[in-house]
Amino acid sequence: MIANSLCLEAQARGDRTVVTTIRGSGLLRASRPFREGGATRVVVAHLGPGMIRGDAFALGGRVEPGAHLIVAGQMATRVLSGPAPATHAAAWHVAAGATLKLLPQPVLVSTGASYAGTTTLELEPGARAVVTELVQRDPGAAVRITTLVRRGPRLALADTLRLDGDDDATVVGTLLVLGDGDVGALDRAAERCLGVRVGIGVLRDGDVLARVTGPGVREVDAALRTLLD
Which of the chain's ends, N or C, has fewer CB atoms near its CB within 10 Å? Predict the structure, then answer.
């Protein structure tokens, strides 16, 4: 097990979702579960000043059939400069008829720092997932964020966002809707996103990927929230 890790498991019981496992170590912490209708929300926090010196974090778990789990971040995570990249790996299995929403807070990568994040989703038939990412890269920082989605044995998506070099600071947000993506609704929501640029594409299985760029974290975060609504 990675020193900084957190595992969550959720099951459907009647009309509600119950978190049956919260198992963590190191600097990752989870709140108690909060019920939101038929869904359950868990808020994840990093202890300490940020990620430095090759810190490695791992988050993941299972959402069983019919359950609806929301995993949100508590606050932005700052990645500080150090001799090795800081890494974050997330791996989730979403069972048939289940829904997973991953809604982390922004990752702020400082000058001289390097950050690599990987999210892997395994979706059974009828599973649905919504994933957001927001990263701010200061000049001189390096960022690589990869998302892998598997439907059974088939690789349904391999997406990598790579930002590096000494150009100006960069803020990029990503929204991925896997299953039942309504591109028309997203297009209409994008028209309400002011001060940013939004690109929306439909993927092979009808999934939807949206990218947002803008002048700052506040503007891009507001646009992602508009798209989610």
Answer: C
**Which tokens go with 120?**
């892997």
Sign of the torsion formed by the C-alpha atoms of 193, 174, 161 and 5: positive
Coil, strand, or helix at residue 189?
Answer: helix
Residue 115: which domain range? 4-166
Place of tokens 């506040």: 218
Partners of 175 in the β-ladder: 132, 210
Residue 90 in any domain: the answer is yes
Per-position pLDDT tens, the chain of length 229: 467 999 999 999 999 999 999 999 999 999 999 999 999 999 999 988 889 878 999 999 999 999 999 999 999 999 999 888 999 999 999 999 999 999 999 999 999 999 999 999 999 999 999 999 999 999 999 999 999 999 999 999 999 999 987 767 799 999 999 998 889 999 999 999 999 999 999 998 999 999 999 999 999 999 999 999 8
CA angle 76, 216, 147 (to 5 degrees): 60
Report the C-alpha gap between 205 and 117 in whole angstroms: 24
Q: Is 101 a member of any domain?
A: yes
Number of domains comprising the chain? 1
How far is it, in rounded angstroms, from Cα 204 to Cα 157? Answer: 8
215 is a domain residue: no
- pTM greater than 0.90 (yes/no): yes
Strand duo 56-63 + 4-13: pairing: parallel
CA angle 12, 14, 19 (to 5 degrees): 35
